[in-house]
């Protein structure tokens, strides 16, 4: 595969926070098909909206380096003649500043999304709509001001005929529901919804 083909692949499979500083930016990129989320704790300041078919996969940093030697490839927007696969590489990009705080994971296999103290009241951490989405080894820890469980106070809001699969995930909300499912379908495999202030899963179909 020549360098231009690799660049297409990387555009379709960006890494957060290497290629994009936030999950929302990666999901909003036109070419994204799969997002690799660095394991650790990511502080989320605004609701994440997913309205496209995509897979979110937690991956440890040492797995990134085994794929390629490519610091912030997507942000460089230039040709990459020296792009290559390597078995053991390291990278650094001192100019890169992530908007999300990423800390070492207590479980090294998962990426944990946590609402910040300034997160908007009565809003879900993630809203998935009109899409087919897979989350793998992603933990969602939701807490926000307010008590309006009928209009958004939940960890993940799934709507508009979306099809969502959680694999190896956990979902909690200390302020509202875990999953709010409206005219959508959800599959949980080796996943759990627990420690929620309201119902763990609330489903409503028209």
Overview in brief:
By secondary structure, the chain is mainly beta. The chain has helices at residues 3-12, 23-28, 61-65, 73-76; strands at 15-16, 34-38, 40-44, 48-50, 54-59, 102-103, 111-115, 126-129, 132-136, 138-142, 154-159, 163-167, 170-173, 177-182, 185-189, 192-196, 201-204. The strands form 3 sheets. It has a 6-stranded parallel β-sheet with strand order 1-2-5-9-12-15. Strands 6-3-7-10-13-16 form a 6-stranded mixed β-sheet, with no helix packed on it.
Please identify the structural class as seen in this structure. mainly beta
**Count, helices:** 4
Beta percentage is 35-45%
**In which order are the strands of the major sheet placed?**
1-2-5-9-12-15
Helix content: 10-25%
Query: What is the tally of beta strands?
Result: 17
Topology at a glance:
Elements: H1 3-12, E1 15-16, H2 23-28, E2 34-38, E3 40-44, E4 48-50, E5 54-59, H3 61-65, H4 73-76, E6 102-103, E7 111-115, E8 126-129, E9 132-136, E10 138-142, E11 154-159, E12 163-167, E13 170-173, E14 177-182, E15 185-189, E16 192-196, E17 201-204
Parallel strand pairs: 1-2, 2-5, 3-7, 4-8, 5-9, 7-10, 8-11, 9-12, 10-13, 11-14, 12-15, 13-16, 14-17
Antiparallel strand pairs: 3-6
């Amino acid at each position: 595969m020549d360098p231009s083909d690799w660049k297409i692949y990387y555009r379709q499979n960006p890494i957060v926070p290497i290629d994009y500083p936030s999950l929302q930016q990666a999901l909003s990129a036109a070419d994204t098909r799969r997002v690799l989320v660095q394991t650790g704790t990511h502080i989320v300041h605004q609701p994440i909206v997913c309205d496209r078919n995509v897979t979110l996969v937690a991956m440890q940093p040492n797995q990134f380096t085994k794929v390629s030697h490519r610091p912030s490839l997507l942000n460089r927007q230039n040709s990459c003649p020296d792009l290559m696969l390597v078995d053991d590489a390291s990278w650094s990009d001192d100019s890169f500043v992530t908007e999300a705080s990423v800390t070492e994971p207590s479980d090294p296999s998962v990426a944990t999304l946590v609402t910040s103290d300034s997160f908007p009241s009565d809003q879900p951490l993630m809203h998935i709509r009109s899409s087919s989405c897979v989350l793998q080894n992603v933990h969602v820890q939701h807490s926000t001001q307010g008590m309006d469980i009928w209009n958004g106070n939940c960890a993940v809001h799934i709507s508009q005929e979306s099809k969502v699969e959680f694999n190896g995930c956990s979902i909690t909300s200390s302020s509202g529901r875990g999953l709010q499912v409206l005219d959508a379908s959800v599959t949980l495999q080796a996943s759990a919804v627990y420690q929620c202030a309201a119902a763990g899963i609330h489903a409503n179909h028209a």
